[in-house]
Queue: 4 jobs
Job 1
Amino acid sequence: MSSLGPLVPPSAHRAGALLLAASIEFVAVMAVAQSRFPGYSDVANAISDLGNTATSPAYLVFDVGIVGFGLLGLAGAFYLRTALRARRTSKIGVGLLGVTFLGALAIGFVPENLHSSLHSLLSLVTFLAAGLSLLVLALAMLRDTRWERWRLYTLLSGAVDLVALAVLLSPLTNSGNFGAVERAVVAPGLLWAALTGIRLLRIPVYEPGSSAPSSPVPD
């Protein structure tokens, strides 16, 4: 059994609530913006088309919403570190997750039609950081009984994310299927955040007034 035991500090529940809220908020924002966009296609249209100030009737909903998603996610990543063992992989993984949400936040201020090159760069950084963060977090979960059945799921989510990103950047992706491939990049991380949030909320916390288990020596 891990020297940390099966419990988490109360701050880990805050991480869970914030990650779950961020995921739900992003899906809701996309649904609202898409419902007001005549002819929008999940297969052909990029997600960022929903924030295009020239063509999306509800661009403000999407652009403000993705900023909110980034803020919620950043706060969730900040608290997530308390649910992991004190090791370098935890710091790197949480840091990359923070970059993911910071990138999403920045995208809300840089619509695709106003700053195309910068928007594309921010999207690439966000997608790449998301996949890498999950791979590193899977390593951070090693030898921790609280995550023993979650490591493989985290690893596979990161791998699927990066493979989909490679396809997105390849000649296999064109104007007819861009939206579908981009969603394959985004979905694994978004689903991971939601399910990890639920998992964190279900792990018992330290009893009030009790001493927290001692942290292991960082590796």
Job 2
Amino acid sequence: MLVAILLGFLAGLRTFTAPAVLWLMRRDTPLAYALGVLALVEYVADLSPKAPARTRPLGLVARGCSGAFCGWTVASLGTAPVAGAMLAGAVAAIIGAYVGLAIRSRAITLIGRVPAGLLEDVITAVASVAVVAYV
């Protein structure tokens, strides 16, 4: 269950990174590569000053679904009950979205918008790999 929560939280930071890493490391399928491409597209789109806030309704729904998807995937690997893992992942993603926004806003004032975004990308990717390697 902890893995579902951690990956869900990371999905709150970047919608596609956690599921992409999870699938690329644990399920080498076309979906894994599609998620990887979506993660890369998200990194580029996030640097745009016109990128919508992650806490707007559509962003929260996407992150919640991503967290639930991570929870489902973790459960399918045999490490947690499905419903609980999905719920935990979704809730953690919503929390991650708000926590990430607060930290990113502070980072923007300290180092600028683009460096803060790139730093968040790196942290999310590295943390996702570390969590999935634990599974």
Job 3
Amino acid sequence: MNEAAGVSFTVPTRVVVAKFALAALLALTALLMGNRPQLVIGLLAAVALAAYGLRDVVSRERLRADADGVVAVRGYAGRRQLAWSEIERVRVDTRLRLGARSELLEVDAGDEIFLFSRFDLGVDPDDAAEALEAVRMR
């Protein structure tokens, strides 16, 4: 994150490694179980988790902002460039469910809303919102 030239938020390496490690552990456990239904379910779960890990490798940078606007990841490898004038609001959506608190950075561009978690940004969503607003105000 370099505020002089703008800001950039990427998925932390530890999150990517954890997804692949857990996928490998799920696959290994499924193979050792030997029971056909457990094998299929375990391998499907491992493949799904590895696909999320692959997305983190392909689109590591989730959000970037500079004086011109914001570039946000959309889907697995798509990117959407938004001028600051297209962005209606940047805020942190905080929810409390079953005693667990979740926070998402919300970039509202009218027709589209981009949501980013702490695991997408590598920093607390409040810190990311402040950094985006600082870039926007320049």
Job 4
Amino acid sequence: MTYVISDLHGCYEEYIKMLNLINFNDDDTLYILGDICDRGESPMKILLHMLEHDNIIPIYGNHDISALNSLSKIGLKSKEVIDDMYYVVTHDLMDSDEYNDYLYWLIDGGKDTLIDYDKLSVSNKNKVLRYLSDFRDYAEIKVNNIDYVLIHGGFKDFDESKELFEYSLSELINERLDYDKVYYKNKILTSGHTPTKFIDSNMSGKIVKKNNHIAIDCGCVFGYSLGCICLDTMKEYYIEVSK
């Protein structure tokens, strides 16, 4: 079976519960459409679990790229807390643009990722950095003779005749889709990035399917649920967020 989830945001407990709910095994494939990192407490536990499974396919989200850029600068070296909100690198001065990006990342959920990363052994830090650097930008797959386009975010200046590799990674992870628009007439576009409560207020915490789209970010980190869809059967699965 082929499954899709998105926007885990460090919600390790819900992630493991979902794998158990779908009875995920070596014969299955799971695509995760980005944003494993930031905002939740345990992104490193998720990444360390994912990297041990070749049948879990990660696709970049904007938070994963931000985490990778900042953690790559930090590397394996030590940090210190300067107040309750910020960490700084003590061994190198970043230039102003990099430093501003770093501070923005921390404010936008990166602090949780950094704290979790700092708990890792040197060996596991290396594993995580290598793994994060090897995510896919997108995926195109066929299930039951139906073509699916899997991305995190959206497109800028969309043209159905364009190949996915012609879009920049920044577009694919940062742009937001118009769910009242049909992008592909003969393909199903499947994405995360925008919590479904912002697509249809009546579908908060649920998967939204409309106009050849499947919107899979159900807002787990915001207290709604973690959603998963099986592309073979179109069955939807949900894990309610632990209180």
